UniProtKB/TrEMBL annotation:
PROSITE patterns: CBS. It comes from Flavivirga amylovorans. PANTHER family: CBS DOMAIN-CONTAINING PROTEIN (PTHR43080:SF2), CBS DOMAIN-CONTAINING PROTEIN CBSX3, MITOCHONDRIAL (PTHR43080). Pfam families: CBS. Residues 11-68, 85-138 form the CBS domain. SUPFAM superfamilies: CBS-domain pair. Keywords: CBS domain. This is CBS domain-containing protein.
Amino acid sequence: MKRRTPVSEIMSKDLIALYKEDTLETAEMLFKKNGIRHIPVVSGESIIGMLSYTDLLRISFADATDDENSIDTIVYNMFTIEQVMTKNLVSVSSDTTIKEVAEILANNEFHALPIVDDSLLVGIVTTTDLINYLLKQY
């Protein structure tokens, strides 16, 4: 296993992002359509928050139904992305080592880290990315 491998080797670079003006319905659709669990919330190319599928589950029945005319619409209209997203983010640069990223994720209660270079969002790394990397080592 390489000890100094940068996180840029395993991070997702083709990002799906939300803007704070987007709706929670849009967020749910993106989560389900793309099979993902974390979406950065951006202003321009800068990250201002992170929305997780778990955040939606806390306020809705998002995984209980695939019915597009569900009660979620009513609940989602009560909140904005900015109210639900995590705002105080920990981020790392693309040259941070995978080991350092693993330590950050292991010692915190979140499962995704935005990758930011020169104030610009360039990627995201998740615990799933780390597990897949480790599996390839064996």
